[in-house]
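Give me structure tokens for this 235-residue protein.
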Amino acid sequence: MNAIPPKPYSVTMRALSQGHHISGAERIISFPDVPRALAALEQRARQHPLGPPDTIHLSIQSLEAADIGVVPALNRRDYSVDHKHEARRLVADILVEIGISPTVANDMLSQLVTVTGVPGARVIDDQGRDLATVVRASHLDLAGADPAQSVKNHHAEAMAVASKVASGPGVLAELCISDDPDYTTGYVACQGVYHRIPMLKDPGELIGTRIVVVAAGTDVARLKTYLKEQPVIVA
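Here you go.
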């Protein structure tokens, strides 16, 4: 099956409340599916647990099929934990396993569970240096996703984002806790694996952020352009 839809269009939604981002979604679909996708994304924005929004931005952009990349979905690994402290320790342990020093891994974990409200992902190199850059993955979708789906599928959408980010130049890992107060599962994506970790925060806890870990010396401007502008289907 061809992962790239015929006559492809990018459809995006961003919702804000009092100037703060509360919801966003991306679709790459064929032109006949655009009306259904717009309706579904508008409904999703209105029903977000951090809402209701006071501003909803919907955009449509035509794409060239030849410009769309196809990247493989990460392999999924699930974990079972008894409490959030165990879950958070897993994050640091996974980082150490891929070569991050324990000190830097613990610092990244601390930032993951304390920093919130960033409109995108912060970029930190493998030596622990904050590169003072925020990146956002856009223009992406999962192959075969239902364009009329209005209820957020946290896992599927996280997998799509994580797979695109992982394919970016210089990326070693991505850490994520959702800013949805009712969704407590997060992930570490690295070395081709999506480590899905439950109980990274308490239900109702108002934290959520992303960190992209890159190799020292990575061309961050190139990475930022790729994540924002390169259309990608995850298959």
